[in-house]
Amino acid sequence: MMDTQIFSCIAQPDSGTKFAGQIVRQGGLVVFPTETVYGLGANGLDGDAVKKIFEAKGRPQDNPLILHVARKSDVKDLWLRVSDITRKLMDAFWPGPLTLVCQKSSIVPDEVTAGLDTVAVRMSSNKTALALIRAAGVPIAAPSANTSGRPSPTSAQHVIDDMWGKVDCILDGGQCAIGLESTVLLVSKKPTILRPGGITREMLQSVIGDVDVAQSVLSPLKDGETVASPGMKYKHYAPEADVIVACGTLMEMAGIIKREYDKAEAKGKKCVILASKETQSFYRGKKYDIIGSATEKKDMCANLFSKLRQYSDAVDVIFAESVSTDDMGLAYMNRLLRASGFTVLTE
Ligand code: AMP
Ligand code: MG
After folding, report:
1. Which of 2, 95, 214, 243 satisfies CB 3.0 to 4.6 Å to 123 for a cystine?
2. Quick check: CB of 143 below 6 Å from ligand 1?
3. Do 179 and 36 contact (CB within 8 A), yes or no?
């Protein structure tokens, strides 16, 4: 067990960031808030420091990390070149929840990219994250600060649950505003969303025109299939409980869920329904929790991981409703389908 120090950055965003920056420079591990989820960071130019991230998370070695920078100009050292499209995207969406994947330069260690010749880079808008990276004076390699496979942490309590004693320092920035990880975009001739997030396909298209979505975003990988983003290979975001997703109109989903809930309960299973404001009245007499309004997908995204964590050990089955895949719905369904292992029920 390591000694873990925790700082509250809620009232004062740069609290503890000098200390934490020093730890990063010395090769240690620091958890920090971003607008998406909490990150588990180490010196992104130090392969040995980066290895510790994989150990603390239990992350498969072939899943590359994102480098976090504090200034747009920092990308010059990390990418071979910055294309016009890349520049446009950085100008439109940085700082913010957009990660860009481009050809890497030789200073980026293989431990970060899992041996790929590209590297993913992002500039967060979170003040604590930016202060930390500036204090460290190096790009910070950081995946989400959860134990590999579990839902990403969106509060300091989630981080404490997974990382206490495994990291040198935790910067507590309160609740993460977006609550799902960044959009990962492969910048190539045909820009492709490898992972949907807070910057939507529609937003990207308004700046650079047509944008593809990788097939793995909404469907499971077939055996032996190669994948542009190695992270999509793994069972992800999964609570202990089974997750079952219903598809259809609101009425159809409510019908499916009520029927399956009764069946599961008859087998002695504890269940909960992640209902929307619009469907809650259908579930009277059953255990349900409101994840948001079906017309406010942002709120549903912000609550998803924390609800999955909350019910992970508390119930046997979590029932959830699907949403349409426009705007933030694409990111929501990507995470929900993966959490369920693609367990989907339709009428
Ligand atoms: P995490 O930081 O845990 O949110 O995961 C980072 C995500 O970005 C994973 O899904 C990775 O597979 C993906 N990623 C990181 N670097 C690259 C890269 N060079 N090419 C493609 N995907 C990447
Ligand atoms: Mg992650």
Report:
1. 95
2. yes
3. yes
The residue to mutate among 78, 118, 184, having the most atoms of ligand 1 within 8 angstroms of its beta carbon, is 184
Q: Is the CB of 40 under 6 A from ligand 1?
A: no
The pTM of the full predicted model, rounded to 2 decimals, is 0.95
**Cβ-contact 286, 258 below 8 angstroms:** yes
Nearest in space to 118 (alpha carbons), one of 187, 56, 217:
187
SS3 275: strand
Task: Provide the b/e sequence for 323-332 (b: ≥16 CB within 10 Å).
Answer: bebebbbbbb
Mutation test of ligand 1: which of 61, 101, 148, 150 has the most ligand atoms closer than 8 Å to its C-beta?
A: 101
| Residue 184 near ligand 1, beta carbon < 6 Å | yes
Residues of the chain with pLDDT > 90: what percent? 91
pLDDT in tens, 23-52: 999 999 999 999 999 999 999 999 999 999
pLDDT for res 273: 98
CA dist., res. 95 & res. 97, Å (int): 7
Token digits of residue 336: 């929900």
Q: Is 34 in the pocket of ligand 1 (CB under 6 A)?
A: no
- What is the pLDDT confidence band of residue 238, given thresholds at 50, 70 and 90? confident
What is the 337 CA–ligand 2 centroid distance (Å)?
15
Which residues is 193 bridged to in the sheet? 185, 213
Determine if residue 287 is left, alpha or beta; phi over 0 gives left, psi from -120 to 50 gives alpha, anything else beta. Answer: beta
Note the pLDDT of residue 306.
Answer: 96
